[in-house]
Every structure is written in structure tokens, then in C-alpha cells.
Amino acid sequence: MEKVWLITGTSTGFGRELAIYTLSKGYRVAVTARKTEDIQDIVKEYPQTSLALRLDVTKKEDIKEAVQQVLERFGRIDVLVNNAGIGYFGALEESEESAVRQMFEINFWGLTNMIKETLPVMRVQKSGHIINISSIGGLVGFPALSYYHATKFAVDGLSESLQKEVGPLGIKVIIVAPSGFRTDWAGRSAEQSQTEIEDYAQTAGANKSSIRGYSGNQPGDPKRAAVAIVKAVESENPPLRLLLGAAAIKNARLKLDQLRKDYDTWEETTVGADFPKE
Predict the structure, then answer these.
(1) Which residue of 26, 46, 173, 212 is surrounded by the most CB atoms within 10 Å?
(2) Which CA distances in Å does 275 have to 89, 196, 263, 270, 271?
């Protein structure tokens, strides 16, 4: 339990439950949020093993300062959890570019900059875990979420490549891919397009209404998710992708089936695109 965790976005949802659980297990934890008053209740019971930090992942100066403060307090960083993120609802044609770019700044570039600032520490240690909270939406796409999926597909691709770069250095990467959980993702944390096009009412519009409607009643339990994430970190051979929730495994398998069908059906055309073998 000497490991040091640095968790982003701990005011609500996965980040909050993960911070509470890791502290309860005796880990040393840097608990971060844009407003430190939102996390005081988490850290007050653990004055020796917790550190509350103000952190906006879209600000590089915040990231540098946070990492430095963790090193000054605890001397190392063993587990980085990139949890900070937001959602956005709207068909591609309906979506506002400014809101989409802000989502990319948080979901992708904020995550990337956290990794870049932390990796030098882990490389010196020759050990560490990078936990990127993605989504089943990083594997499977649904209407009304095209740009959100773009951020999470980007996180998946980056993480898969990163694992091949840092694995030989003793650093492990885990992509966490939840389905519907009772976090604030579909509530306050998610913005939506102000434009609605009638032609998308039965696709993007219907899915947006469905997601908003079951916010707070999703089957996924954030507390159990926190336990699952820690179990993966503590395991000798953690998975590259940790799916969370029955809907996540169901949709991932449906995606696998569709991929196999397309690949097998079009195999002759695919192979035929090469120069003929001599």
C-alpha cells in the first residue's frame, strides 16, 4: 500500500468512488478537482495519506503544478488515473464546433498532457500504471454521440499504442471501458447541441432522450467499478481493456461479431488489393 495514486476528476462519479476506495485501502492518494472544496469531504479522514489538489486538465500549468506537488509530498507516482471527462449529445450535423473542441481538450488532450507529465517519473521508477477511463463508446458507436465517441476512440488508439511503447519499460496501461453507470455523465456533466434536425429524430434524437431518461437509473455501480479497477491494478497481469458492466461486454461482443462478418465477407476483395504474388 505504499503506492501513490494520482486521480483526476474526483468530485463525482468514478473518480470520487475510486479516491474513497483507494484511501480506505491504505494507499496514498492525490485527489484532484477543479474546485478543491468539492473534495474536502474525501480527504479529511485521511490527513496522512491524502493530498487535495486543484487541477483543471485543460491547463498545462495546473498539470505541472499538480505533479510537482505530488512528488514533493509523496516522492513518487505509481498509478495515474485519467478520469476527468465530459459528454456531449448531438448528431454530427447538429453539433457545435466550439463545444466539441472543448470536449476534446478535456477528454483527449487533457488526458494526453497528464500522461506526458507523469511518464518521466514512471520511466525513472521503471514501474507504474496508467489507467485511462474510456468507455464502451471507445469500441462501439451509437447515434447522438459521434463526437464523444471520437474522443474515446482516440483514447483507445492512443492507449493501445502507448502500451507497446512503455510496456518494455515496466509501465502498464489499462483502458477502462464502462457501459451505463450511475455517474453524472448523462446528467450535469454532459452538454448537448442546441440545434435539432428533424431527420435525425428517430436516431440521434431518440438515443439522446433514452440516455437522458435513464440517468440515475443505470445498472452500473460506481463503487463496484472502483473495486474492479483496483483489482486490475493489483493483479500481476492486468488486461489492456477492462470492460465494466453487462452492457459493455454485450456490445463489445456484438462489435466483434460484426467485424468478423465484414472481414470474412470481404476477405477476397481485401486480399485482392495487394500486388499479385509472383
Answers:
(1) 173
(2) 44, 47, 19, 12, 9
User: Any idea which residues carry the catalytic annotation?
Assistant: 134, 148, 152
pLDDT above 80: residue 4: yes
CA atoms within 13 A on the CB side of 240: 12
Reported as a single tens digit per residue, the pLDDT across 82-119 is 999 999 999 999 999 999 999 999 999 999 999 999 99
124 belongs to a structural domain = yes
User: In this structure, what CATH number is given to the domain that contains residue 149?
Assistant: 3.40.50.720
Give the separation between CA 67 and CA 63, rounded to whole angstroms: 6
Task: Give the Å distances, CA to CA, from 173 to 52, 143, 158, 160, 248.
Answer: 25, 29, 10, 8, 19
| Residues 160-216: tens digit of each pLDDT | 999 999 999 999 999 999 987 767 655 565 688 889 999 999 999 888 887 766 665
Rounded CA-CA distance 153/126 in Å is 28
Domain contains 267: no
The answer to whether residue 253 sits within a structural domain is no
